[in-house]
């Protein structure tokens, strides 16, 4: 038997539609201070919408895309790897002979001999120039930890040579990690002449690569990093944290600590930073 049609009053009909398709507002543009999205595909640009400062992989973006992000009020930093090289980079074979050792937990990556003038010139005159031409607001410089692994004067000088070279593009630089190198620069008084801020990963959290999970950082390491970041702040550097999938309780602790100390944190969902 065919059921008779029923006509609902308009307000009731709207209520039914809302229940079937609840309204989910888009996150407010630029409502969050900072996010690192090195693994982001350009098809997922909407992920960047809530952030005021974003770090991207510049080789995946065009100048027009960078400009569009800036038109939304964002500061756009480009990732630049100073101390290691990934085997998927189109220039990997050019520099394979000056690599030093495998990068632990990242099988596609190797440390580079940054004392090599060939590498220094490439980073500054080719990569740096190409990325600056995109119109980026700054550089996010990775893997200065090479100095901690190879604490030699020529390695230290290689890093400082590249930093001074990149300064010609007049863009602020954030050093990701590299606490031993950064501490040496603070001690000799050159830090503020070479870079503007530091980003430290895994202060409150860490990645358990063996079990592919995210856990709380041990107390000794956390204390070390917080002391280091306090010294960086006192030296006039901006301080950023990058944490991986903290619990809700730990996330609240991180945000509270950063607010009290003038730091900025990004809480990532995964190590791939998509």
Quick synopsis:
This protein has 274 residues and is α/β, with parallel strands linked by helices. It has 10 helices and 13 strands.
Task: Provide a descriptive summary of the structure in words.
By secondary structure, the protein is α/β, with parallel strands linked by helices. It has one domain (31-268): Aldolase class I (TIM Barrel, Alpha-Beta Barrel), CATH 3.20.20.70. It has 10 helices and 13 strands. It has helices at 10-20, 63-71, 92-95, 117-133, 146-149, 153-166, 179-188, 191-194, 219-234, 248-261; strands at 32-37, 51-56, 75-81, 84-86, 99-102, 109-112, 138-142, 173-176, 197-201, 205-208, 213-216, 238-244, 264-268. The strands form 3 sheets. Strands 1-2-3-7-8-9-12-13 form an 8-stranded parallel β-sheet. Strands 4-6-5 form a 3-stranded antiparallel β-sheet, with no helix packed on it. The protein has a two-stranded antiparallel ribbon with strand order 10-11. Helix 4 (117-133) runs parallel beside helix 6 (153-166) and helix 7 (179-188) packs parallel to helix 9 (219-234). The longest helix is centred in the middle third of the chain and has 17 residues, at 117-133. It is globular and about 45 Å long. The model is unreliable at 1-25 (pLDDT under 50).
């Amino acid at each position: 038997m065919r059921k008779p049609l029923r006509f609902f009053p308009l307000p009731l009909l709207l209520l039914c539609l809302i229940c079937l398709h609840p309204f989910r507002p888009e996150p407010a543009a630029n409502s969050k201070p900072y996010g690192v999205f090195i693994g982001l595909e350009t098809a997922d640009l909407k992920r960047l919408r809530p952030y005021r400062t974003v770090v991207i992989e510049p080789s995946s973006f065009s100048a027009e895309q960078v400009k569009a992000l800036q038109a939304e009020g964002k500061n756009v930093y480009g990732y630049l790897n100073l101390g290691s090289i990934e085997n998927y980079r189109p220039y990997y074979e050019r520099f394979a002979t000056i690599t030093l050792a495998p990068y632990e937990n990242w099988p596609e990556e190797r440390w580079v001999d940054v004392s090599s003038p060939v590498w220094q010139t490439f980073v500054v005159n080719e990569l740096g120039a190409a990325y600056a031409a995109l119109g980026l607001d700054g550089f996010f410089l990775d893997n200065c930890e090479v100095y901690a692994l190879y604490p030699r004067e020529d390695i230290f000088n290689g890093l400082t040579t590249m930093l001074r070279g990149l300064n010609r593009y007049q863009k602020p630089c954030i050093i990701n990690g590299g606490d031993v190198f950064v501490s040496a620069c603070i001690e000799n008084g050159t830090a503020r002449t070479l870079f503007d801020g530091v980003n430290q990963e895994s202060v409150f959290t860490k990645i358990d690569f063996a079990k592919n999970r995210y856990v709380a950082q041990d107390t000794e390491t956390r204390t070390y990093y917080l002391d280091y970041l306090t010294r960086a702040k006192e030296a006039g550097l901006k301080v950023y944290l990058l944490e991986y999938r903290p619990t809700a309780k730990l996330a609240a602790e991180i945000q509270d600590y950063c607010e009290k100390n003038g730091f900025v944190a990004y809480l990532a969902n995964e190590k791939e930073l998509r």
